[in-house]
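Module 6 notes. Inverse folding takes a fixed backbone as the condition and produces residue identities as the prediction. Think of it as a translation problem where the source language is geometry and the target language is the twenty amino acids. Below is one complete input and output pair. Work through it position by position during the lab.
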C-alpha cells in the first residue's frame, strides 16, 4: 500500500484503512485544524440559535459587565 511520508495507516484484515498515525514532526502544524474538525463533528447535533439571537445574547452579556 502506498504511503505518504509521515503517515502510517493501520488496516484491518481486509486491507481497509481503519486509522492513521501522523508524525507531528511532519504534520504537527495541522493539529489545530484536525482538532477543530473533531470539535465541529462532536457538536453537530447540539441545538442551534440564529445569528440575531446570538448577537442579542452577546450584547446582553457585555451590558452585564458594566
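Target side of the pair, the amino acids:
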Amino acid at each position: 500500500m502506498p504511503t505518504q511520508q509521515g503517515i502510517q495507516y493501520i488496516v484491518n484484515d481486509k486491507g481497509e484503512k481503519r486509522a492513521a498515525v501522523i508524525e507531528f514532526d511532519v504534520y504537527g502544524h495541522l493539529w489545530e485544524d484536525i482538532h477543530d474538525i473533531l470539535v465541529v463533528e462532536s457538536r453537530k447535533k447540539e441545538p442551534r440559535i440564529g445569528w440575531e439571537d446570538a448577537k442579542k445574547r452577546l450584547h446582553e452579556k457585555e451590558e452585564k459587565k458594566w
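Reference fact for the lab report: The mean pLDDT is 90.
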